[in-house]
């Protein structure tokens, strides 16, 4: 692209306006910080709801005081909306290694930028669960009980709320991550998407995914979220973590390459 500026400065007459350069975009540090804080908000909202509010016992009239699966799904959807509108304009609002890799596969994000984004997302998620562990530790025995229960980690068999096996977890993570990434790619498309509503649509999609799949494997579709909880979830959570890194990435890459081939062609 040629430089639109003249080779030599020309004095402007009083009726002319000197051209101004477009403002520079966010710095690399700013985009990585936005991914850190966006992922922090996502994991903080989701795991706080799961550990502090989902099962809060019953009131005097016998009604549940917890928010249950519906409340947890709503919490993560709202966290996505908040993060998308607060930090999305800076970094694009991925907040999820699977989304970052899916967008790269779709040709919508440079592969060279994926490592930095993923590192920031993992650190943001880990910071969020560390804050949750710190809060919970103010109550005697809370941390030990949360750890023994898996710390809302993803898993199958004993770590599945509904007792589902590894096969169900694999299918869920591939299919529902692909769904999420396809929605992200579609709603943020430069010519066919609607950026004004993208954060809301993505947040509702994430809430829908959690409503459908929490009983199966506690819903990952986000390796940064899975890593963040497995850190505090004990041996079983760490032993199962590989699946919630590998299979969301598989689903994301399938969605990225498929969307690119079907709807955007193969032109780079």
UniProtKB/TrEMBL annotation:
Annotated membrane topology: Multi-pass membrane protein
UniProt GO cellular component terms: membrane
Chain ranges passing through the membrane: 29-53, 65-88, 163-185, 197-216, 239-263
Molecular function (Gene Ontology), one example: channel activity
Cell compartments where the protein resides: Membrane
This protein's name: Aquaporin Z
SUPFAM superfamilies on file: Aquaporin-like
InterPro entries per record: Aquaporin-like (IPR023271), Aquaporin_transptr (IPR034294), MIP (IPR000425), MIP_CS (IPR022357)
Family assignment from sequence similarity: Belongs to the MIP/aquaporin (TC 1.A.8) family.
Renumbered residue ranges of the record's region Disordered: 1-24
Source organism: Agromyces rhizosphaerae
Alphabetical keyword list: Membrane, Transmembrane, Transmembrane helix, Transport
Pfam families according to UniProt: MIP
